[in-house]
């Protein structure tokens, strides 16, 4: 009788390979599963860009009108600029848009089903976040250096200037 040479894998070798592939899949899966946070962060970067562009356009109109050193909340009724052909005006704080939802709705078009404005949590600041991702209590202020936390993430914000010859702060905090 001739001895046949063994061909193929044993059952144990097959099980070991499957276990190794399973371990690799478990370690690699979170990187691919986290795409939703990346997409939401990109969306908030887009909102930040919209806030920045709108603010720059309003500031340009304010410079042309010569009222960039006036404050509407300080009682100066001339601290406004016309923003469209229908004569709608935006209230200004030192040449930049005021921190109210009504003013921002005149100059940016964000779907209210997708985004929510928060103007009460942080003084002089408009916070915009996805409607399905509400940040925790912001009364303590925004995190330093825009570092996200479990409580505060996935927002774009605009902090209006509070003195003449200063610029607003416009930024976003990534989604986690």
From TrEMBL:
Which regions span the lipid bilayer? 12-33
Name the domain of life: Bacteria
* Pfam families to which the protein is assigned, alphabetical: N_methyl
Entry's PROSITE patterns? PROKAR_NTER_METHYL
Keyword set, alphabetical order: Membrane, Transmembrane, Transmembrane helix
Gene3D superfamilies to which the protein is assigned, alphabetical: Glycoprotein, Type 4 Pilin (3.30.700.10)
Membrane as UniProt keyword:
yes
Q: What is this protein called?
A: Type II secretion system protein
């Amino acid at each position: 009788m001739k001895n046949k040479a063994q061909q193929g894998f044993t059952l144990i070798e097959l099980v070991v390979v499957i276990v190794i592939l399973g371990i690799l899949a478990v370690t690699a899966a979170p990187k691919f599963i986290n795409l939703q946070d990346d997409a939401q962060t990109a969306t908030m970067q887009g909102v930040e860009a919209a806030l920045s562009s709108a603010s720059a356009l309003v500031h340009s109109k304010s410079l042309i009108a010569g009222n960039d050193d006036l404050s509407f909340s300080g009682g100066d009724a001339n601290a406004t600029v016309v923003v469209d052909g229908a004569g709608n005006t935006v209230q200004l704080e030192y040449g930049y848009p005021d921190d109210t939802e009504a003013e921002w709705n005149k100059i940016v078009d964000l779907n209210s089903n997708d985004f929510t404005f928060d103007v009460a949590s942080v003084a002089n600041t408009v916070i915009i976040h996805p409607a399905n991702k509400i940040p925790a209590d912001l009364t303590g202020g925004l995190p330093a250096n825009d570092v996200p936390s479990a409580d505060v993430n996935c927002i774009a914000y605009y902090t209006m200037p509070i003195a003449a010859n200063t610029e607003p702060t416009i930024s976003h905090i990534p989604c986690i």
